[in-house]
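Here is a protein:
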Amino acid sequence: MRLSYIYRVSAGARLKSMEAIQFDHADGWRAAMQVALAEDTRAIDWFDVDLSESIAHEVAAAERIKALLASSPLVRVRLLLHDDKFFWRYCQRLVLLQQVYGHAFEVRLTSEADRHPAETFLLTDVSVVRRFHPDSHRGEASEDGRQRALCRQAFHLMWQHAQPAQEGRRLGI
């Protein structure tokens, strides 16, 4: 399912391919994330403050990520958070996936220098769903290559300085 098949929540108009989908409320943010996770992709880079306003704790999101991880050894899921308490407490299905698919599912915490308010996003090979500021639900979902490249660059810069999450790690002893 591609972003071009989603309906604008506020207007109900069908969107053309490559047109950005604007949203300004939590339901639009969650719907756009569901569509992005439903796409056929090999990589998911997800940056959020703490996942509390996302779909991470929903069964459908965990099932889709599980299906992606099981589909190919090349699939990668990278989760970058400012605070991981919500993840460990309320996203038990994702925690289990992280333990089972530890080679392909990684969780890291941003460095202190990167903990300023910035846009949060869910990035796949096909699309990007971004919220312009963590305190607002305004954002857009797009298949635009330029927006994906900008988000990928920001993600990689933060990922390099991030620390692996300590809770939930297996020691292998």
